[in-house]
Design the sequence.
């Protein structure tokens, strides 16, 4: 079988990321699979981020400059400029897991597939195991930095720029509800900073989860039960955080 070499678009929103952006870029351009482009969408950095990006002088790097309305707006801008068949979004403090990540995944053909997903590892060593299926009804069970989307997914979808944390949950939920074909790969795709907003015990993420579901499910007992479990997860995580803080403060 002849294995095709699709162009991969890695899209990175950034703002004042001088401390980490070089590591992100290096993890991309050092890939053994080199049929790629790295689209960096800078929201108007006032530090040395752009100087660092331009210092790489790699023709595979595209840098879009200008103010945006946040991370999801930057991702939408990246989608508009992407030429790749497959798109993945990684943050300015994230890295592709190894230099063979893309080569390991795209050693196979995925002609009839709309998204491919694997796992991520946090900088604490904890691994997030992405899963699809019915679990998606309860929470966003696919980590955003672990998934490659076929570009046709974005023919009728853009991220909701009003959301701060879970516009990608809306995409994943929509794909699941519509029965879109996916493939899970047993690979760690990305290494991510553990302290991201979506990892904190802030209510905003849980509120966005509830609001996303309301767009796709009619009101009724099923939706109510899904939203109750979201609230219970929030209170459980908040309680654990408070206990841990109290323990740390007593030591």
Sequence:
């Amino acid at each position: 079988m002849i294995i095709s070499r699709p162009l991969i678009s890695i899209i990175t929103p950034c703002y004042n990321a001088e401390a980490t952006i070089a590591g992100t870029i290096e993890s991309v351009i050092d890939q053994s699979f080199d049929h790629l482009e790295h689209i960096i969408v800078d929201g108007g950095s006032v530090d040395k981020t752009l100087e660092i990006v331009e210092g790489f002088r790699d023709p595979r790097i595209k840098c879009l400059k200008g103010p945006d309305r946040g991370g999801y707006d930057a991702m939408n801008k990246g989608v508009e400029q992407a030429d790749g068949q497959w798109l993945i979004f990684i943050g300015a403090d994230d890295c592709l897991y190894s230099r063979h990540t893309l080569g390991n995944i795209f050693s196979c053909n995925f002609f009839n597939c709309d998204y491919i997903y694997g796992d991520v590892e946090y900088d604490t060593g904890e691994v997030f195991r992405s899963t699809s299926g019915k679990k998606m009804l309860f929470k966003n069970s696919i980590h955003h930095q672990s998934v490659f989307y076929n570009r046709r997914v974005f023919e009728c979808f853009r991220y909701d720029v009003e959301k701060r944390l879970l516009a990608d949950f809306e995409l994943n939920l929509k794909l699941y509800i519509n029965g879109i074909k996916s493939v899970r790969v047993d690979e760690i795709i990305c290494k991510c900073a553990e302290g991201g907003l979506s990892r904190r015990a802030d209510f905003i993420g849980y509120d966005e989860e509830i609001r996303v579901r309301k767009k796709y499910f009619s009101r009724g007992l099923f939706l109510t039960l899904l939203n109750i479990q979201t609230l219970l997860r929030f209170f459980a995580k908040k309680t654990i955080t408070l206990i841990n803080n109290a323990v740390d403060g007593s030591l």
Remarks:
- The chain has one domain: 8-195.
- The radius of gyration is 19 Å.
- Residues 221-250 form the longest helix (30 residues).
- The chain has a mean pLDDT of 93.
